[in-house]
Amino acid sequence: MKFAIDNKQDTNICATCGTRYATAKQAGDGCTICNDDRQYVLESGQHWTSYEAIAGSHTILIIERDKDLHDLRLVPAFAITQRTFLVQSPGGNILWDCLPFVDEPTAIFIQSRGGLKAIAISHPHYYSLMVAWAKIFDCPIYLHEADQQWIMDKHDHIALWSGNQKQLWDGMSLVHTPGHFPGSIVLHMPHHGAQGTLLTGDSIFVSRDRKQVGFMYSFPNYVPMPSADVRIIHERLAPLAFDSMFSAFDGLNVYTGAKEIFTKSVKRYLEIIGSNAS
Ligand SMILES: [Zn+2]
Ligand SMILES: [Zn+2]
Fold first, then answer.
1. Closest CA to 260 of 195, 208, 180
2. Does residue 276 have a pLDDT over 70?
3. Angle made by CA atoms 11, 132, 78, in degrees to the nearest 5
4. Is 193 helix (H, G, I), strand (E, B) or coil?
5. Alpha carbon 254 to chain centroid distance?
6. Residues 56, 157: Cα–Cα separation, whole Å
7. Can you give the pLDDT at residue 158?
8. What is the rounded CA–CA span in Å between residue 65 and residue 246?
9. Which of 36, 142, 163, 271 could lock onto 120 through a cystine, CB 3.0 to 4.6 A?
């Protein structure tokens, strides 16, 4: 582990979505991620910020979910406010999703837990500061190739993969679950928890009551996911065992009964909006 951040003072981070760009942006420059119809530009316009500005006002909160799973998020809340997860596994650790910031105490904490073998990111909303994280831990970033047009900070650490599933180690796999984005993925961990765990990103949205899940093309713009994509997600996850699942935001945790909640929610979704589906 070698903690270093390049170009700390450059205004290369979008303040609304947290995406870092390869070069500094000027007032008037747009953000590709925010201009997409899944996201939005604030009424006050596009705002850019720097690593240094975020470092001056934010820290990272680390919460232990169980002995092999921590989630991390920025406090106070910044940009999309997603969590990232540190998954500890005998064959090597994974960072699932990413944050628009990383500091040295967080890097030291992760290193104390064995460092990172890889970073895997569910979809472009959470690419954020991925290259800085990958450089610190000298590890690959696994992204699905269907989303490669959304990579704003290209780097050799990025390893694109294709197909329906990418097998990792210790039985873990990345599963392609398109719908929110064409290349959206989830992380399946069959040996984690009582009967397996799913880290869902934005592919499966755990509801606030944690008793149901939803499927959205756009959360902020309230656009449901096409039912054809929900069918694909169901088909690909139906053979997999999981009892707990965690989606991208604080408090959206299901500790038991996740597979039943998922299956029941898919059925209801398709009953409600699936009748005209292609
Ligand atoms: Zn943005
Ligand atoms: Zn998203």
1. 195
2. no
3. 55
4. coil
5. 17
6. 27
7. 98
8. 10
9. 142
- Residues 246-273 have pLDDT tens digits of 999 999 999 999 999 999 999 999 999 8
Give the domain ranges of the chain.
13-273
The domain over range 13-273 is classified in CATH as 3.60.15.10: yes
Contacts of 46 (CB under 8 A, 6+ apart): 14, 16, 27, 28, 29, 30, 31, 34
Whole-number Å distance, alpha carbon 125 to ligand 2 midpoint, is: 5
C-alpha torsion 228→232→233→237, nearest 10: 150
CA of 204 to the centre of ligand 1 (A): 22
Q: How far is the CA of 80 from the centre of ligand 2 (A)?
A: 9
Instruction: State in Å: Cα 180 to ligand 2 middle.
Output: 7
Q: Which amino acid is at 159?
A: A
